[in-house]
Amino acid sequence: MKLINADDFGYSEADSVVINQLINNNIIQTTTIMVNAPYFYNSLKIIDFDKNKVGLHLCLTEFKPLSDSIKNNKKFVINGHFYNNPNLRGIKGFFYLSKKDKNDLQKEIESQMLLFRKYFPTSNFLDSHHHIHTCFGILQIVVKLAKKYNFKRLRISKNIDSSNFLKNIYKTLINTYIRSNFPYSFKYFADSSNNSLKICYNLKDNIEIMVHPFKDECGVIKDKLTGTNINEINF
Predict the structure, then answer these.
(1) Residue 16 contacts by C-beta under 8 Å, 6 or more apart in sequence?
(2) Per-residue burial over 71-80, b = 16 or more CB atoms within 10 Å of its CB, e = otherwise
(3) pLDDT tens digits for 75-95?
């Protein structure tokens, strides 16, 4: 199976409308929604496709948290909003988190899963904003709660077109852990950059491609992060 997923549904009206259009035109297959994003509730109204094509996009790096206890935790929240704390990344993130931090994270992640389940009771896949779930200390909490709320597929760490030896070791460990807990997770995961797509074209199956669609000033739908014309991604 080769699948293109659009992250950030619910981020804004423009993003959500474009993603809805791409799914209806069979250009992409799925999307993941941010339940704490400003446009979340409005985005629910524009979905006119199978809701099982919508997964959860956990967000612990932007927008306001849903739970109370994490709001005063400065490792995650400043001025009422999540921020992307670099200390959470890699192995050091495992040692950076205190017992209270993990409890705060668990309450927030569970709050996001519960809200998602309210509107998408049978959807079974999830990923996260800025890939925050691939930080091992957070990943353990996500895996535990994902099983509790009947998710069957969790996004792995990017393992296409990466040349950093130490990062690749870490990614291999993380991906082995994810796939051992969620066997339906994809074997390969990449963005839509030209180099990544060239590699993906030569792989037979079991690939997820991530895109962040937007419509440019000429009306062309591109990936915000790579500039790739999404209509031209063809498997």
Answers:
(1) 9, 10, 39, 42, 43, 46
(2) bebebbbeee
(3) 999 999 999 999 888 777 778
For residue range 142-185, list pLDDT tens digits in order: 999 999 999 999 999 999 987 788 889 999 999 999 999 999 99
Angle at 6 between CA 5 and CA 12, to 5 degrees: 160
For 13, 32, 95, 132, 136, the CA distances from 76, given in Å and listed in that order, are 26, 22, 15, 12, 16
Q: Is 121 helix (H, G, I), strand (E, B) or coil?
A: coil
CATH-assigned architecture of domain 2-232:
Alpha-Beta Barrel (3.20)
pTM: 0.96
Question: How is the chain split into domains, by residue range?
Answer: 2-232
- Ramachandran quadrant class, 219 (left: phi over 0; alpha: psi -120 to 50; beta: rest): left
